[in-house]
Amino acid sequence: MTVRMICDAANISSGTFYHYFENKTDLIIELFSLIDDYFEENVLERLSDEDELVNVIRFCSGFSEFVMQTGVAKSKLINSMFPVYSKGGHHEERGRILYRELNAIISRGQEKGQIITEYAAEQLVDMILVMVRGYCFDWARREGSYDLVKYTEEMIALFVRGLRPCSAYDLKMQKD
Amino acid sequence: MTVRMICDAANISSGTFYHYFENKTDLIIELFSLIDDYFEENVLERLSDEDELVNVIRFCSGFSEFVMQTGVAKSKLINSMFPVYSKGGHHEERGRILYRELNAIISRGQEKGQIITEYAAEQLVDMILVMVRGYCFDWARREGSYDLVKYTEEMIALFVRGLRPCSAYDLKMQKD
Amino acid sequence: MTVRMICDAANISSGTFYHYFENKTDLIIELFSLIDDYFEENVLERLSDEDELVNVIRFCSGFSEFVMQTGVAKSKLINSMFPVYSKGGHHEERGRILYRELNAIISRGQEKGQIITEYAAEQLVDMILVMVRGYCFDWARREGSYDLVKYTEEMIALFVRGLRPCSAYDLKMQKD
Amino acid sequence: MTVRMICDAANISSGTFYHYFENKTDLIIELFSLIDDYFEENVLERLSDEDELVNVIRFCSGFSEFVMQTGVAKSKLINSMFPVYSKGGHHEERGRILYRELNAIISRGQEKGQIITEYAAEQLVDMILVMVRGYCFDWARREGSYDLVKYTEEMIALFVRGLRPCSAYDLKMQKD
DNA sequence: GATGAATGAGTGTTCATTCAT
DNA sequence: CATGAATGAACACTCATTCAT
């Protein structure tokens, strides 16, 4: 994805591009912040299920929904640049909005006894984000040839099963 | 990773590089095939546990082991080029060796009743490969700043829990 | 010095700039004419010493005074564009005001016997202007790090010594 | 003077340019060092006159000779970039060769009583270099339309007259 | 008059690739 | 077989200039 390609796609001149963005990296940072907006406007409200593992799945769906809407081209652009540390980690800070939200879900889940406590919430958050981003990366690489949301949901649904603590009975049964 | 950087690292001239590889992509295809060699020499023998889910974990460990040994630089190179479709999907064919092996493990697991059958083996293989590659991608992006094998194992171990079928008792207990 | 920088400094839009100047070169031509105004208002009156070599020094001081007041930024702008031949040498015509004034001083000096006649007045004018402009150029290059007027005066004072004809006595002495 | 122009003039591709120079500035630094070579090979041997003021003139002639040989295009290139401070002032260090040589001449002249001592040698060196460079700059600006060596010599010859100390008699005569 | 978004040719620089030696 | 000088299209980015509002 060159600046020229972006400009051609947007039907603007490269001069105009640089009128709005200081450099190519700036565009990507801008793109990053869009996901926060998307979450605030569309996803956050869906994350209030009693079962926090359901919320985890919805969170991941929201993420992949956004990526699909954003499209293959922009996703590749983001992939090519990630991680971006410029501007004092500004986007990272913003990125933390996503991070904090997922962390909150998992922490609540652990408090409620819905999620295993073998791993710290931070560790689980990292895992899930890597997995979800991994799927997004694959999807863009394959030119968006499959339904990202569906596949992400299936994968996360399975992963989430492993996060559910076994009941005392359950453990007993397994031993037998 | 420019061709010149690769050549400098290998102490050869760029002329020599093009004597052995038709182009840069060819090198990457070559790199791809290395993982098959690695699996054949080091990993395949470890995949004979009675519990096929253990084999899944070992398979993934083998993959990330290889990536760690390969190093950040080469990993980035591969990431930057993947997927490579040239030469009639030649490398993809080779890639199938990996694919087939994991498929075999999961199919056996399903036959033995160790792995759920809600999803076809192919689907599970795809999921796992995407997840593992996702971690490799993240690791390279972060300049190899963590122990890829350890993190991959933890993630896969959790995922694999979700693949274990619940016993009839188990389901009954959960209902109660 | 870009047009945008000039406009920012002047608190106008670049549109406004092009409302008043046909192009960037035009601004510089305008800048050139400022020196004539400066000479007419501030320097000419000082050029009436009986000793024309004193007037030469005052002329050069006036020139460097103007450059210092104009500032490093504008000086660089002028240097970067000089000589400007557009508009039928319009600015050169104006430049001639300066030229003619110095020429007049030197011609008078030669008539009065205060200045050697080995070189035509035109030649001496050219030399002095090149020297003074050379100092201005150096000063701007070095970001205005020294007192341009002082250094120019010292240099010209020395040069002017060489323009004073030796008396008959003087020559005689030197021979002895 | 763009890199492309330089390459066209030299009948090489811009890729080749960057094979030999790390960047445009490097070429200019290279150009700078050429003057030292020129002085060492052609000028230094001429600087052994008994009269140090003669040596000053020869020094300046050597400088302008070099510039004329270098040509208008390269001179403009150098002018456009001077002063260059990169690479730890490497070229400045080299530049000092020139500086030191002229300084030595003038210091000797002052010791021998051939040059006035009102100004420190360093000051006179600075003046002369600014003047000579000023002429070179003017010459390049005017597309090399005159004989730089001749004009520089005339100018310096006059300036040098002012550096000759007046005898006691001389001063007395002037008062009368 | 004044604005500033838009333009696009041009700049320094990179890099996969070629080829004479 | 090996070299590395040479290539030139492509890149991110700049900037004088235009023009609809």
From TrEMBL, chains A, B, C, D:
PROSITE patterns: HTH_TETR_2
Record feature DNA-binding region, as residue ranges: 2-21
Gene3D superfamilies attached to this UniProt entry: Tetracycline Repressor, domain 2
Top-rank taxon, per record: Bacteria
GO molecular function, one term: DNA binding
Entry annotated with the keyword DNA-binding: yes
Keyword field: DNA-binding
Domain HTH tetR-type per the UniProt entry, residue ranges: 1-39
SUPFAM superfamilies per record: Homeodomain-like, Tetracyclin repressor-like, C-terminal domain
Keyword Membrane part of the UniProt annotation: no
PANTHER family documented for this protein: ACREF/ENVCD OPERON REPRESSOR-RELATED, ACREF_ENVCD OPERON REPRESSOR-RELATED
The protein's name in its UniProt record: Transcription regulator
Organism: Peptoclostridium litorale DSM 5388
Lineage: Bacteria, Bacillati, Bacillota, Clostridia, Peptostreptococcales
